[in-house]
Amino acid sequence: MPSSLPSPGEMAAWDRAAAALGLPEAMLMENAAREALLALADEAGDLTGASILLLMGGGNNGGDAACLARHLLDAGARPVVMHTRPLARSRGAAGRHARLARRCGVRFSPVPAGDAPDLFRILEREAPDIIVDGLLGTGFSGNLRPREERLVAALNAWREKAFIFALDIPSGLNGLTGRPLPAAVRAHATVAFEAAKPGLVLPEAAPWVGRLHVRRIGIPHCVREALPASFRLLDAGMAARFPRPSPLQHKGTAGRVLVIGGSIGPGGDLTGAARLAALAALRAGAGLVSVAAPAGICAEIKAGCPDIMMRPLGPEGTRRWSPDLKDEILGRLADCDVAVIGPGMGREEATAALTRDVLAAPGQRPPLVIDADALHALARNPHAPTAADGSLAGLVRPADTLTPHPGEAAFLLGRANAEVQADRFGALADLRALAPAVWLLKGAGTLIAGGDGPVFIAPFAEPALAVGGSGDVLAGCLAALLGQIRHEPDAPRLAAGLAVLLHAGAGRLLGRRFPARGNTATDIADALPEARALFLSPSNPRSRLCCASLPD
Question: What is the average per-residue pLDDT within 207-229?
Answer without folding.
Answer: 97
